[in-house]
Amino acid sequence: MCMSLQVEAQPRDEVVWMHADFPPLRIIDGPYAGQGISDMIHALMSRELPDFRHSVITANLSRTLNWMESGRNVLAVGLIPNPQRDRVMQYSVPCVLVPPVCLVVRAGEQESLGLGGHVSLRDFIARKRLGVATARSYGPELDSVLLSSPDLSRVVVNKGSTLFESLLEMLLLGRVDGVLAYPFEAVYGARMKGKEDMISIAPLRESMVLVQGRIAAPRTAWGTAMIGRVNEVLLRHRESLEYRQAFERWLPPGIIEDYRIMYDDFLMSR
């Protein structure tokens, strides 16, 4: 029987978790398989909601939106609300707090590149070569800079199939002077290649708001009930060491202390 027919026939006590293949949010294979942030949240929910039968599938955003719109009994971890998604989804309290997109450069080159404190992406593009991934959004602030910069000849668009791996290779080969990435994906990508000590991360002035991802459910009665259940679990566990370490293990050592302060502020504000 095909997956679509299986899901259409789901009983109410079964939940399908839809995860994107986006390490280290979800890590499907390799030495860190199952040790991603979404993997931790899924394992937590499986333990804390034993009255449900849990299964996991890998799905891109388009498929997730389609299944949510059709009202299937599915949940997705780490989604960021926007008008398109809001039409078919409802959300939990934040489950993921991620430092914003940063500038990744070769280790030891911050001074020669004139990078101190928060870096202006617009100024960087005016002087250096920047690598970005094709068709990827880096958030409205950075996207605006990329679209409006008069120096777009210095922006190198990589069309590789992976979001960061190809950009990292370009950076280390000297084809660009910096690339855009979330800190956790930069650390994961470099660590997998044994080159974590070959990169440095600089925060960007245009991107200083932490990203809050949530668990999404369809706009159905089942979805409303599930959001209530997962909220109870999240509010009990977001302060735990296990929960925090799932994030911190994928951050550069130099920003962990700042991240802890931001995380504490985030918890106190809710």
Helix-strand blueprint:
Elements lengths: L2 H6 L5 E6 L17 H12 L4 E6 L2 H9 L4 E6 L3 H4 L2 E10 L3 E5 L14 H7 L2 E4 L6 H9 L6 E4 L6 H8 L5 E4 L1 H10 L6 E4 L8 E8 L2 H17 L3 H8 L4 H16 L2
Parallel strand pairs: 1-2, 1-3, 6-7, 6-8
Antiparallel strand pairs: 3-10, 4-10, 5-8, 5-9
Q: Which structural class do you get from the secondary structure elements? A: alpha/beta
How would you sum up the global shape?
globular
Q: Count up the helices.
A: 11
Number of strands: 10
**How would a crystallographer describe the biggest sheet?**
5 strands, mixed
C-alpha end-to-end distance: 44 Å
Gyration radius, rounded: 19 Å
* Mean pLDDT rating: 87
The neighbouring-strand order within the major sheet is 2-1-3-10-4
**Helix percent band:** 25-40%
Uncertain segments of ≥5 residues (pLDDT<50)?
A: 1-9
Strand content: 15-25%
Taken in chain order, the helices and strands follow as HEHEHEHEEHEHEHEHEEHHH
Structure notes:
With 270 residues, the protein is α/β, with parallel strands linked by helices. 39% of the residues lie in helices and 21% in strands. The chain is built from eleven helices and ten strands. The strands form two sheets. Strands 2-1-3-10-4 form a five-stranded mixed sheet. Strand 6, helix 6 and strand 7 form a beta-alpha-beta unit. 36% of the residues are buried.
Descriptors:
single chain, 270 residues, alpha/beta, 5-stranded mixed β-sheet, 21% strand, globular, disordered N terminus
